[in-house]
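pasting for the record
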Amino acid sequence: MTEIERLTRLEERYVHLQRHVGEQDKAMLEFAEELAKLRQELAILRVQRAASSEGEESREDERPPHY
């Protein structure tokens, strides 16, 4: 293998790795955005659950309408 062929092959590998790193960066950004969105939804669900469980505790003392 000549020096030119060796350099060409190294350049091709380098370009491939650059493209791969760029794709990984894009995927990681998408995952981070999705994670942030899921954390926000989880926080909302926790607040809703806490609010509904507080409402259920007050209803336990009430008599049903048929009494």
